[in-house]
Amino acid sequence: MGHTVRVRYAPSPTGMQHIGGVRTALFNYFFARSQGGTFILRVEDTDQTRFDPRALQDIYDTFEWLGITADESPAAGGDAGPYVQSERLDLYRSYADRLVQAGRAYWDYTSARRDHDAESNSGEAGGYNYEGRDLTPERVAEYRAAGVKPVLRLLVPADGKTSFDDLVLGTIKRKNKDLPADPILLKSDGFPTYHLANVIDDHLMGITHVLRAQEWVPSTPLHLLIYEAFEWEPPRFAHLPMVMGKDGSKLSKRHGATSLIEFRRQGYLPEAITNYISMLGWSYDDSREFFTRQELEDLFSVEKINKAPAVFDYKKLDWYNGQYIRRCDDDRLVELLLPYVQAAGWAAGSGGDGAGAEDRERLAALLPLIKERLKLLADVSDLLRFVYEDVNSWSLDDLIPKKATAGEALAWLDAATAVLEDRPLPEAGDDAAEEAYTEALREAAESAGTKLGNLMMPLRVAITGSRVSPPLVGSIRELGMDEARRRIAGARAVLAAAAEKNA
Ligand code: GLU
After folding, report:
1. 24 C-alpha to ligand 1 centroid (Å)
2. Residue to mutate (ligand 1; options 12, 46, 207; most atoms within 8 A of CB)
3. Structural domain boundaries of the chain?
């Protein structure tokens, strides 16, 4: 390879990091690592009207949470800095002058009002009809006398075409006359637009490959015209496939969470997010699904990026998350779950962070009950509510299995309780005893003329207050037989009253 790979993630701090942005960041990072190259974080904050300091912080938080570090960035510094565009304004202006001198850009005095919209999308707000192209010196003088500040526009040639070989999409060709009309490079307040700042920085920072979202494809020919005007060699481009919802429309809030912070709050693990997002438009082969971050750093390649849109499947992400929770070591899982236990008000406290050693121990002891069942960390509150809180009201709808009567449910609760009273609960981890216990329950179900699931349901609801619960025998062991008996009696009274009424 000629020169070493230098890539960048160049977010605009205008909103919280979303799935598409995280995917772009990860692909650039993995590509750099797999090539022994350099990964740069550049903050594109030239649109001061949409700048949001929380969005800037969110960029840094996202990197930290994902565990990815940029080799050059506002925090790490680097030879090509500063890495924040608002700190590079003089540079953009001096380069812009060069374009004017070369006759490739011109000052337009007719657009002062329109340039406010110039940044709100990738191109022009629309409506420009080249009015500013050939102003006579007299007209310019009039505008100036009136205090009008000009915008700088790229002179897009009327003839010819601009094309590039996209590493993902192949050859893309556009007639210059179909490109947006002379896009603004500098706004009247002297701030550069995305197009100008992005090209100058990619060049000055020695970017070799631009991996970015497909929504930028229409801007790329404009960027190439700017490279050409500067007589700079452009980088290679790889536009990443769109991310769609299951219905085939662009992923949006209608489909569910889209910003990383929402996923974090719901309790997704960084390794699950990293793994799943890396599969959005990239695959190593057709079957392999699990990759550690290190493996992605080794194996990632641009050749394996797909052209076709990727579908974001929330269920699949949940599945990954469950898988990674099972793989998580217990100490870490306790720390990850504690905030949810605290938020539910179940931590006794005493630790500096509001949770103490006893809270950790209690949760650690409960892990075997839930580790196999958690999809999201936040699920812990539903799964363990019955342990931390009393269960003292039972809904008949829950207590009575589908298509059964109150009388049947009562009989099944009694039959299951008889097994409980008849034999000691198996010790935790004693698989053989657990097996025998289940067998006894199964026999009781058979004698009662029903399935094991039906027999267990009233008991499950009596104990946990819910139809979905951790494994029942373990749950009872956790509560102790005394508490279990108390709850069974309470639920039994509800069922008995209903059975009476029906009789
Ligand atoms: N600042 C642009 C964005 O937020 C960067 C696009 C690019 O990578 O060129 O998406």
Report:
1. 10
2. 12
3. 6-73+243-311, 88-240, 336-382, 396-502
- Active-site residues: which are they? 253
- Classify residue 114 by its DSSP letter: G
Ligand 1, CB within 6 Å, residue ranges:
10-12, 44, 198, 212, 216
* Digit-coded pLDDT (tens) for 279-336: 999 999 989 999 999 999 999 999 999 999 999 999 999 999 999 999 999 999 999 9
Determine if the pTM surpasses 0.85: yes
Per residue in 426-444, pLDDT (tens digit) is: 998 899 999 999 999 999 9
In order of 56, 185, 402, the CA distances from 200 in angstroms are: 22, 11, 67
Q: Which atom of ligand 1 is nearest to the CA of 8?
A: 8
Helical H segments across 371-430, by residue range? 380-388, 396-399, 406-422
**CATH architecture classification, 6-73+243-311:** 3-Layer(aba) Sandwich (3.40)
Rg for the chain (alpha carbons), in Å? 31
The pLDDT of residue 354 is: 67
CATH code at 88-240: 3.40.50.620
What is the Cα–Cα distance from 484 to 225, expressed in whole angstroms? 75
Q: pLDDT tens across 339-355, in order?
A: 999 999 998 875 556 67
Query: Is 336-382 the same fold as 6-73+243-311?
Result: no
Which CATH code for domain 336-382? Answer: 1.10.8
Q: What's the CATH number of domain 396-502, 3.20.20.70, 3.40.50.300, 3.40.50.2300, 1.10.10.350? A: 1.10.10.350
Measured from the Cβ of residue 460, the count of other Cβ atoms closer than 10 Å reads 25
